[in-house]
Fold:
Amino acid sequence: GAVVSQHPSRVICKSGTSVKIECRSLDFQATTMFWYRQFPKKSLMLMATSNEGSKATYEQGVEKDKFLINHASLTLSTLTVTSAHPEDSSFYICSARDLAGDTQYFGPGTRLTVL
Amino acid sequence: AQSVSQHNHHVILSEAASLELGCNYSYGGTVNLFWYVQYPGQHLQLLLKYFSGDPLVKGIKGFEAEFIKSKFSFNLRKPSVQWSDTAEYFCAVNPGHNFNKFYFGSGTKLNVKP
Structure:
């Protein structure tokens, strides 16, 4: 149980285009989903927290107009990287918290490469 | 700002050796503490967690961790590692029981030689 999927697993795009990453909780309802960015040899950096049906809460320094997050249902959240640039290349990981609320379950991540 | 420190970035052990990975955090209030493991090519999985009660927490696959409040530490231990424990290990802190805030350490890569 408690499986979280992400799609796509890898994406390569041209600079200036937008990329959407999906995060789904497959066998449970997730009231809250989290989006992280992982830099090489560094920790996971929390970008934003999204609650179903409400606006996402962004961490300090994360541009909300660049990283659009939508959490339209209890099983799906999307992260759209708008007007992507090479510096946005990274590994993006989502996680979901179940209704009990005390544990996060992580997706496998999405490798974004912006040319 | 809150921070989570994992001072060992890369650890190499032989099978059957004992393991201890350090984790220190800077948040001064109540915290929930977690250890996650990421096996090669796989996603992060929960190893164990501490919310309250007995500061010695036992997790899956023979891992345990001890919360020492006075030292702001939550070190991960295993008495005898196996080759299959080769992975990256992340400590995470959830301050003040706010389940919307998780702070991760930079991770420790463990290589176990067969």
In short: Residues 90 and 107 of chain B are 4 Å apart (CA to CA).
